[in-house]
Amino acid sequence: MAKKGVLLVNLGTPDSPETKDVRKYLDQFLMDERVIDIPKFNRTLLVKGIIVPFRSPKTSKLYKEIWGENGSPLFHYSKIQAKLLQEKLGDEYHVELAMRYQNPSIESALLKLKAGLVDSIKVIPLFPQYASASSGSVLQLVMELVSKWQTIPPISFVSSFHDNEQMIEIFAENSAKYQPETFDHILFSFHGLPERQLAKCDHTGNYCLKQKDCCHTYNDTNKFCYSAQGHHTASLIAAKMGIAKENYTVCFQSRLGKEPWVQPYTTDVLKKLAAEGKKRLLVFSPAFVADCLETLYEITVEYHEEFKELGGEHVQLVESLNDHPKFVEALAEMAVS
Question: What start-end ranges are recorded for coiled-coil regions in this protein (predicted)?
Fold first, then answer.
């Protein structure tokens, strides 16, 4: 009996924390025209001439800090998510996992679905909020690869699930163990993007970044905006937890380069809160469905240490969706819808 194919795609991870593998990962990642969206010649000089040679050894050390007996946490949890989804959906479905960068590749996963003679494919990029540099890159590559097939089955895509009710419930549940009411402030720290990439997603050409706080209200005009979707996710989690708007801040981490990225920057918010006398911060990172370098090291280690140096006491990360059964249910609903 023909099966329905499901392709889960996460960002990716080096094959090992060694410098040579980190170099390969960063090279493929940063050479993506949707990630660093500048002319190819300039991108090549920047990535291959500056970023990768100098950043790879440093990033290798960071990966070694989070690498466990199961390897990369992001890959480990992604494999579990795919395995549990296959069990949840049963024999009528064929689930494959791929990484946008490095292994297993999207091409290899698609070929497995093709060999399995699936009669349709549902592609689910594992990024709750849509961004051209993440979900958009996945969807583009899938379409490019499948366009070369002689027989193309029906293909559908999930572009975002930033307001998924089960995802919101999981983050709220995960935070309960830390007693949120005992913290001075709540942060929703999303991965950053250059402001120019937000502007490119403004189909009207006259809304994005044209007025103050344009992303704070989610509406039909900005419904494809990464920042607006992030603010919406944060507001839904806060509402589920009963957190008043003045008690939480949406911010953005992992800035690269000197040009303006989406603001406020998480590091600036840490300084502001420390200056106000805040001592304990609870931090969500709802741009990720699996804990990874950006959560396990950047937030848990770097931001914690930075905040203490500023006079704070503790930064506590709320873990991601990881292997939570409700997230598997959410994925199953996306797969069959």
Answer: none
Do 127 and 133 touch, CB atoms closer than 8 A? no
Structure confidence by residue, pLDDT tens digits, 89-114: 999 999 999 999 999 999 999 999 99
Binding site per annotation, positions for Fe(2+): 191, 294
Both tokens of 31, joined, read 């050479």
Go through the domains of the chain in sequence order and give each one's CATH number.
4-161+325-336 (3.40.50.1400), 165-317 (3.40.50.1400)
Predicted confidence (pLDDT) per residue in 54-78, tens digit: 999 999 999 999 999 999 999 999 9
How far is residue 128's CA from residue 228's CA, in Å, rounded to a whole number? 12
Residues flagged as binding site? 191, 294
Strand order across the beta sheet in which 248-253 lies: 248-253, 185-191, 280-284, 314-317
Query: Of 274, 236, 269, which is closest to residue 251 (Cα–Cα)?
Result: 269
